[in-house]
Amino acid sequence: MKDTIALSEALTKEDVTAMILSAKKQAGLKWEEIAEKIGMSPIWTHSAAMGMNAFPPEKARLMVSVMGLPQEAESVLIESPTKIWEQAVPTDPCIYRFYEIVGVYGPTLKAIIQEKFGDGIMSAIDFDMSVTRVENPKGDRVKVEMSGKFLNYNSW
C-alpha cells in the first residue's frame, strides 16, 4: 500500500481496497459490523470492498463515511469491477478447500440442479450467500449457504 496517495493521482480499486483494509484494522472492526453500518450483508460488503462488485452510490457514500476514506474513493467504489483472478489453484488452505469441493462435487451439483430445474445454471450475479458457525460437540462446523437464481439455457 502506498503510504500516501497524492490527491492529484487517480485512485485505483487496489488503492481503495488497501485503504479500507487499513481503516478496518485500525478501527478493530469486523466485516459484519461494517456491513451493518452500510446496510448490506457481510459477504457482499467484503466482496465489494475487494473490488469484485460495484457499490450502489448511496452505499459507496456510507462506506466512505464509515471507513473515513477520502471523498475521491466514492467514485472508485461505484465503478464496475473487472473480475480477473489467478486461474491457478490457490495455495491458501481455506480457499483451496472450496476448489476441492467444486472439483469433487461440481459434477454432482450440476446433475442435481439439472434434475430439479432443467438445463441451466445457478446465477452468480442474482445471488446471495451467508456463512454461519454451527456449534457441534465434535467441533464447530462452518455452514455456507448459497442461493442463486436459476437461469435456463436458451435454444435459438
Which structural class do you get from the secondary structure elements?
A: alpha+beta
Helicity, in percent? 40-55%
Q: What's the end-to-end separation, in Å?
A: 49 Å
Q: Write the element-wise H/E pattern from the N-terminal end onward.
A: HHHHHHEE
Classified in CATH, the superfamily of the largest domain is: lambda repressor-like DNA-binding domains
Rg to the nearest angstrom? 19 Å
Percent of residues in beta strands: 15-25%
Uncertain segments are: none
| CATH architecture descriptor text of the largest domain | Orthogonal Bundle
Shape designation: globular
Task: Write a structural description.
With 156 residues, the chain is α+β, with helices and mostly antiparallel strands. It folds into two domains: 13-77, 434 Repressor (Amino-terminal Domain) (Orthogonal Bundle), CATH 1.10.260.40; 93-152, Cyanate lyase, C-terminal domain (Cyanate Lyase, Chain: A, domain 2), CATH 3.30.1160. Helix content is 46%, strand content 17%. It has six helices and two strands, in the order H-H-H-H-H-H-E-E. Helix 2 (31-38) packs across helix 3. It is globular and about 50 Å long. The termini are far apart.
